[in-house]
């Protein structure tokens, strides 16, 4: 057993010692408390735990670039600037009706909101998080997590923001009316489909190794618990469909992640607990084909030009705190928590800098980071009894989006079920 512990400790030390959690932080829904962060792990030797978190949510609104502003769902990065959609796009055919319309439109003198489209839709998500945690001795434990997600984007449509009155140009301008009449054909020509989707798939697999400790030699406190975790997030989720601008990957879009986090809690009066947590996920760079801007004035999710680029994804950071009324009636507990999480800006490094000017490519609100404020509310019941080897747990929770920038305004509610198996008395 000592040899096994030394091997596990060695593996933990080999993981890169940088702030590098699980597949739990995304712009389209608030994070789950108890998945990759929350209360510290119980350090009982050889304890085995299985946890399932199931939740669902829906929304038709987003929070835009202005803090806490509410916008239509698919306009979280701003409206689609179709006025300059075809500007500087390489390979346009002067004999193609669609490309001629794009060129004429980009040369038309504009004014505020001319050529702008605001996209809306309805997003639904059902998610199950599966966690398996195995304790060893001396506080070491191993945790494996895998999410399963059913995502649906429906009722996708746009509103024309172009002014409908003079001065020119306005909604009745010939070039704009020509563009709208050929809009679907233009997208088809560039192999794009600006519609919804429906899919069920796994997310990214997380493997973490951690160490936890329990400290009880205090005169004024019941205990202080803490744990530290390092891990790797493997890109097992489904990638974003490059032909669907509104598609959402089921994980971190094929990026390998490296995570580090900590949790701590303090017990008082045998029924009150306070705690906090924090951590980060860093991602390895990825090179693949992506759609990129070809003009500084372009904006939105829909871009015609595509090329190879190295993606330097922004680091995700999170921190939070919680308070818990612990076992206030038999095994019944209540918890309230707050989490702030944010992803830094992503940077693209185009392979062809002649067609894709790096300064224009990276001046894109889609690449700007996002942040989210979340309220966690949990009620659970622990059926554990002295000398019971198998102890079930059930709970109900809500993760509420309180605010943020460039995120879906989704609230998730659901239930949890857990089993603890004690292998040593």
Describe this structure in words.
The chain has 425 residues and is mostly beta strands. It is built from 4 helices and 20 strands. The chain has a single domain, classed as Porin (Beta Barrel). It has a 12-stranded antiparallel barrel. The longest helix is centred in the middle third of the chain and has 16 residues. The radius of gyration is 25 Å and the shape is elongated. The N terminus is likely disordered.
Main attributes?
12-stranded antiparallel beta barrel, about 425 residues, 4 helices, mainly beta, Porin, 3-stranded antiparallel beta sheet, disordered N terminus
List the helices and strands and how they pair.
Layout: H1 2-14, E1 48-59, E2 61-63, E3 70-72, E4 80-81, H2 97-107, E5 116-135, E6 140-160, H3 174-189, E7 197-202, E8 205-215, E9 223-234, E10 257-268, E11 272-283, E12 286-291, E13 306-312, E14 316-329, E15 332-343, E16 347-350, H4 358-361, E17 370-382, E18 390-405, E19 407-408, E20 412-421
Antiparallel strand pairs: 1-5, 1-20, 2-3, 2-19, 4-5, 5-6, 6-7, 6-8, 8-9, 9-10, 10-11, 11-14, 12-13, 13-16, 14-15, 15-17, 17-18, 18-20
Helix pairs in contact: 2-3
A few lines on this structure:
This protein has helices at 2-14, 97-107, 174-189, 358-361; strands at 48-59, 61-63, 70-72, 80-81, 116-135, 140-160, 197-202, 205-215, 223-234, 257-268, 272-283, 286-291, 306-312, 316-329, 332-343, 347-350, 370-382, 390-405, 407-408, 412-421. It is mainly beta and 425 residues long.
């Amino acid at each position: 057993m000592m040899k096994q512990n030394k091997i596990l400790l060695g593996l933990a030390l080999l993981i890169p010692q940088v702030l590098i959690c699980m597949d739990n932080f995304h712009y389209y829904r608030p994070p789950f408390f108890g998945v990759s962060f929350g209360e510290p792990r119980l350090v009982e030797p050889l304890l085995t735990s299985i946890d399932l978190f199931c939740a669902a949510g829906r929304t038709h609104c987003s929070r835009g670039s202005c803090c806490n502003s509410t916008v239509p769902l698919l306009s979280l990065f701003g409206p689609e600037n179709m006025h300059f959609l075809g500007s500087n796009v390489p390979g346009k055919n002067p004999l193609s009706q669609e490309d001629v319309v794009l060129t004429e439109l980009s040369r038309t003198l504009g004014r505020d909101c001319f050529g702008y489209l605001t996209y809306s839709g309805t997003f639904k998500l059902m998610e199950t998080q599966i966690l398996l945690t195995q304790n060893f001795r001396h506080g070491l434990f191993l945790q494996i997590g895998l999410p399963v997600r059913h995502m649906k984007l429906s009722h996708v449509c746009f509103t024309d923001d172009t002014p409908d009155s003079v001065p020119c140009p306005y909604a009745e301008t010939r070039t704009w009316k020509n563009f709208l009449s050929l809009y679907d054909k233009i997208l088809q020509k560039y192999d794009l489909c600006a519609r919804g989707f429906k899919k069920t798939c796994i997310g990214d697999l997380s493997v973490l190794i951690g160490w936890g400790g329990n400290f009880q030699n205090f005169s004024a406190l019941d205990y202080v618990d803490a744990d530290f975790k390092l891990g790797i997030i493997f890109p097992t989720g489904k990638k974003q469909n490059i032909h669907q601008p509104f598609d959402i990957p089921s994980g971190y879009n094929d990026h390998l992640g490296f995570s580090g986090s900590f949790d701590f809690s303090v017990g008082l009066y045998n029924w009150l607990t306070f705690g906090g947590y924090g951590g980060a996920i860093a991602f390895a760079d990825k090179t693949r084909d992506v759609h990129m801007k070809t003009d500084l004035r372009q904006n939105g999710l829909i871009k015609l030009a595509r090329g190879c680029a190295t993606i330097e994804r922004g680091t995700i950071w999170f921190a939070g705190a919680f308070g818990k009324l612990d076992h206030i009636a038999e095994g019944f507990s209540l918890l309230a928590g707050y989490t702030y999480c944010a992803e830094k800006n992503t940077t693209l490094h185009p392979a062809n800098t002649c067609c894709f000017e790096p300064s224009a490519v990276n001046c894109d609100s889609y690449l700007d980071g996002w942040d989210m404020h979340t309220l966690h509310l949990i009620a659970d019941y622990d059926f554990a009894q002295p000398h019971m080897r198998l102890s079930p747990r059930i709970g109900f929770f809500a993760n509420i989006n309180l605010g943020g920038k460039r995120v879906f305004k989704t609230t998730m509610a659901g239930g949890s079920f857990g089993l603890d198996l004690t292998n040593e008395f």
